[in-house]
Amino acid sequence: MTDETRYVGPDEARSALASLAEAERAGRIRSARPRWFGVVMAFLLGGLVATPALADAEGLVSKELATIVLILGFALVVAGQRQRADAWPQDFPGGKGQTALALTITIGLSLALYAIGIVLRDAADLWWGPLASGVVAGALVFLLVNRERRSMLAPIDRTHSG
User: Fold this and answer.
1) What pTM did the predictor assign?
2) How many CA atoms lie within 13 A of 153 on its CB side?
3) Buried (b) or exposed (e) across 62-96, using 16+ Cβ within 10 A?
4) CA 123 to CA 86: how far, in whole Å?
């Protein structure tokens, strides 16, 4: 085992740092969810929250079938996105906490909106209650996904704008 130290010149160090910065930039771009992901997730979650409205719509489609189709849609979209991007935002520093917080907010608000939609439909006799809850849930998911996308791409924008 040798204990040699090699001198690294300023140009070589700059080149190595630039290479590291480019690798992180490429990873962030690859892991950032595309714009369509937020739209699709908004429709899927909004539809899932709005499924109690199908209880009054006889003959269209059963509430159970719609729920199964929407959950399978979630699984397919997330699996496809995971395969497309070799990394998730939580793989980057600070990303794990953001993703966990966004997921907790999404699940909590979705359950609350689902319950509100059912109460509006049953207690207040407003057939459109679940639909309104679904629209609100979809909008919140869309905003959360796009916020996460912007936070993933923000370090890139800062380094290339200055």
Assistant:
1) 0.72
2) 14
3) eeeebeeebeebeeebeeebeeebeebbbebeebe
4) 47
* Segments in the chain forming alpha helices (H): 10-31, 35-50, 63-84, 95-122, 129-161
Which residue type sits at 80? G
| Cβ count near 22 (within 10 Å) | 10
Phi/psi class of residue 59: alpha, beta or left (left: φ > 0; alpha: ψ in -120 to 50)?
left
The per-residue DSSP string of 132-147 comes to HHHHHHHHHHHHHHHH
Q: Using one digit for the tens of pLDDT, what is the confidence trace for 29-56?
A: 777 778 888 899 999 999 999 988 877 6
Sign of CA dihedral 82, 50, 129, 116: negative
**120/138 Cα distance (integer angstroms):** 18
Convert the pLDDT of each residue in 1-19 to its tens digit: 566 777 778 888 788 787 8
